[in-house]
């Protein structure tokens, strides 16, 4: 009778409760999970180091990675084949941080930096997608990430907007800097800059309302919103944004205290920079009227989440612009900011003054509004007086 040679196999003894295979039967040999791996074989030679009856032996591989467990399987198989009898002493596993662990830490750090809930949701989704992509390739640790993984992950992005892809790549690079110290240079090297398409560039250009469009928009307000109180607030919101260039978040959370003595004084929520402007007397009185007795805020009730309140106002503005026939997809309340800058440029304001009124840096304003500035400068130059000369006889 031919004696059968013991064969060592890698398997998962039991899946963790949070593993996707924990409730499935006969899943001991799946490779794409991060549960602890074990080795087992049947034979007379006992290398597991335990006192037990029977010929079935199991040894912990002390790893969660199938590839490493396979290397240990080969070593155990070699010992059995060569007749070694010394028990296999398992070295304690050093707890390695997984990609999921690093993502959790990265999100915690970003939360402590004061990022908005919307920004955190996007970051969590993008990095979660990356972790799922790696898991499908049986890669659970940062050291296992390769340049090919990064390239193929980025090639699977389906966002049409180049700006969205640029931001996603920025978030990915930030995460890789945190956890991939050994192979960081190689991974970042393959993430070349993403170029914007002509459509992206066109969408990013300022889109100020013309005076005719503003008139149509304001005439449409009572038609879209028959409620007198709602219509008055919407009109005041438009007047405020067009006159001051405030971002929608700052406008919605505008406080009565910010309007004291007819001067607008706030700190921008996005940049933290101060904004101070003199309000038109008519606008000041209008904003005072629409508060409707609210002790603190002009447009917000102060009880709902600021992001929720801003989203509702944005939805109303979108409907209003669509009804008035002036809506541009992907460009909503920021058009009011563009309109304010266009007016200031026409009046001869310089970029430094405009940046102070917007609560932005001069560099940001110059970059974003270069086209508007060039257009307004051309208009002013065309109206400049010129010295005239009488024609000289005979020439």
Q: What are the defining features of this structure?
A:
395 residues; mainly alpha; DNA polymerase, domain 1; hpI Integrase, Chain A; 3 domains; 3-stranded antiparallel sheet; two-stranded antiparallel sheet; 5 strands; 50% helix; 6% strand; elongated
Oligomer: single chain
Based on the coordinates given, report the CATH architecture of the largest domain: Orthogonal Bundle
The CATH superfamily of the largest domain appears as: Intergrase catalytic core
Number of domains: 3
Describe this structure in words.
With 395 residues, the protein is mainly α. The chain has 3 domains: 9-81, no CATH class; 99-204, DNA polymerase, domain 1 (Orthogonal Bundle), CATH 1.10.150; 211-380, Intergrase catalytic core (hpI Integrase, Chain A), CATH 1.10.443. Helices cover 50% and strands 6% of the residues. The protein contains 16 helices and 5 strands. The chain has helices at 66-81, 99-112, 117-136, 147-155, 162-179, 184-189, 198-204, 211-224, 228-244, 248-252, 281-289, 306-324, 334-346, 351-358, 362-368, 370-383, and strands at 9-12, 37-42, 56-60, 263-267, 274-278. It has a 3-stranded antiparallel β-sheet, covered by helices on one side. A two-stranded antiparallel ribbon has the order 4-5. Strand 4 (263-267) and strand 5 (274-278) form a beta hairpin. The termini are far apart.
């Amino acid at each position: 009778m031919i004696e059968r040679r013991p064969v060592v196999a890698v398997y998962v003894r039991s899946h963790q409760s949070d593993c996707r295979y924990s409730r499935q039967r006969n899943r001991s040999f799946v490779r794409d999970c991060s549960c602890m791996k074990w080795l087992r074989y049947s034979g007379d030679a006992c290398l597991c180091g335990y006192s037990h009856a029977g010929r079935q032996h199991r040894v912990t591989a002390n790893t969660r990675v199938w590839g490493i467990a396979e290397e240990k399987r080969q070593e155990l198989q070699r010992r059995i084949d060569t007749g070694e009898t010394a028990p296999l002493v398992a070295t304690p596993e050093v707890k390695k941080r997984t990609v999921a662990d690093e993502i959790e830490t990265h999100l915690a750090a970003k939360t402590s930096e004061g990022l908005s809930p919307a920004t955190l949701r996007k970051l969590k989704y993008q990095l979660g997608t990356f972790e799922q992509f790696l898991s499908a390739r049986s890669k659970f640790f940062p050291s296992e990430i390769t340049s090919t993984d990064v390239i193929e992950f980025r090639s699977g992005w389906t966002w049409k907007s180049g700006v969205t892809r640029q931001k996603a790549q920025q978030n990915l690079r930030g995460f890789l800097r945190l956890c991939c110290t050994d192979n960081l240079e190689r991974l970042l090297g393959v993430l070349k800059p993403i170029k914007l398409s002509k459509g992206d560039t066109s969408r990013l250009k300022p889109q100020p309302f013309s005076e005719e469009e503003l008139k149509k928009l304001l005439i449409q307000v009572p038609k879209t919103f028959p409620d007198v109180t709602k219509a008055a607030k919407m009109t005041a919101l438009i007047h405020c944004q067009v006159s001051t260039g405030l971002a929608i978040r700052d406008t919605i959370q505008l406080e009565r205290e910010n309007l004291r003595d007819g001067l607008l004084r706030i700190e921008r929520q996005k940049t933290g920079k101060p904004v101070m402007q003199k309000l038109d007397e008519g606008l000041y009185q209008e904003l005072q009227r629409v508060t409707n007795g609210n002790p603190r805020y002009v447009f917000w009730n102060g009880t709902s989440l600021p992001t929720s309140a801003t989203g509702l106002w944005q939805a109303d503005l979108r409907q209003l612009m669509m009804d008035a026939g002036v809506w541009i997809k992907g460009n909503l309340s920021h058009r009011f900011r563009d309109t304010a800058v266009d007016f200031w440029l026409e009046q001869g304001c310089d970029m430094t003054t405009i940046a102070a009124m917007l609560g932005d840096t001069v560099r940001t304003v110059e970059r974003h509004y270069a086209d508007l500035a060039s257009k307004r400068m051309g208009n002013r130059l065309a109206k400049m007086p010129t010295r005239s000369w009488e024609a000289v006889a005979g020439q």
